[in-house]
Amino acid sequence: MKPWISRLGSLLLIFSSSQIAAEPSLWLATKGHQQLYLFGSIHLGTEDFYPLPAPFTEAYQQSQRLVIETNVSNISSQDQQVLSAASQLPAGKSLSDYISPQYMTLLAKRSKELGFSSHIFDNMQPWYVAVVLSQLQMQTLGYQPELGLDLHFIKQAAHSNTPVYELETFADQIEALSSLSSIQVPLLEQTLDDFDQVPDLFKQLVSHWNNGENNKLLNLLNDDPMFQQGAEQVLEKLLYQRNRNWMKQLTQLENTSFVVVGAMHLYGEQGLLESLKKLGYAIREVDPLTN
Question: Domain span at residue 253?
Fold first, then answer.
């Protein structure tokens, strides 16, 4: 069995390298006078992601608005309180009440390898420890949130005074992520067990994204038996339910929009591309060489 955290990690970090040999995929969905450019984002990036191909920039410049999941560059104090409430353990509880001594020792070891004390996790929910640990690991490998595709276009919009449309609130995102609580102990244990393998698996993920290998990207998640058997409710909350909510909004936007969402939201039977196609949108991939 492949390590299932590699697929879940793709959700969390596309939720988040070598030189780009091909190009990531940009899609155009059209119906009547409406055009939706759809770009699947990775939420953590490196300098190697840039500059983006000219057709990506041109499509953005032709759009009346930027559409994103939520503006992660503008987190309010109220948002921080929402995150704290969802991610912190109840009063009087500590992580060691949920995780075995064996895995607490392994957490201390992994934390030390990343250069900090595992005590920062003492009062965190296990699902949130898994998310934070994965992100910290990616950052030590050079993948930075400020170089992610979402923030790149948010900054572009601020510079060009392009309107930004948010598909959901920060609280909505935290509520979706908190669905991980139903599998949080095995999730954290697997994160710790697969710690040494994740860098190569994430590079594989980025390679598929870079090369526009979208079926392989989707298969990193779909091939995993543990998801098929034990975490369908998590996929429903993290992907499918949000996709349905977003579809109601995307289909109401006028003229041309440039849509940047996590890449895993685009593909598959319940992905945005297939959902738009079922509603009569013409879907095509934009050729990075000719547009």
Answer: 4-72+144-180+195-285
Residue 213 placed within a domain? yes
Residue 215 covered by a domain:
yes
Question: pTM, whole model, 2 decimals?
Answer: 0.83
In a domain, 83, yes or no: no
Site of tokens 């392009």:
162
Q: Which residues of 87-96 are buried (b: 16+ CB within 10 A; e: fewer)?
A: bebeeeeebe
Strands of the sheet containing 26-31, edge to edge, are: 164-166, 65-68, 256-262, 34-41, 26-31, 282-285
Task: Report residue 49 as tokens.
Answer: 């992601």
Rounded Cα–Cα distance for residues 172 and 67 (Å): 16
| Residue 83 backbone phi and psi in degrees, to 5 | -60, -45
Q: Return the closest-CA partner of residue 67 out of 236, 246, 288, 239.
A: 246
Neighbours of 289 (CB within 10 A): 9
Q: Which helix (H) or strand (E) holds 243?
A: helix 241-250
Beta strands in the chain (DSSP E): 26-31, 34-41, 65-68, 164-166, 256-262, 282-285
Q: Is residue 25 part of a domain?
A: yes
Q: How many domains does the chain have?
A: 1
- Give the DSSP per-residue string, 76-111: -HHHHHHHHHHHBPPTT--GGGTS-HHHHHHHHHHH
Query: Rounded to whole angstroms, how far apart are CA atoms 104 and 102?
Result: 6
Instruction: Give the Cβ contact number of residue 214 at 10 Å.
Output: 21
Query: What would the pLDDT profile of 122-177 be if each residue is shown by its tens digit?
Result: 999 999 999 899 888 888 888 887 888 888 999 999 999 999 999 999 999 888 88
Per-residue pLDDT reduced to its tens digit, 58-111? 999 999 999 999 987 778 889 889 999 999 999 999 999 999 999 999 999 999
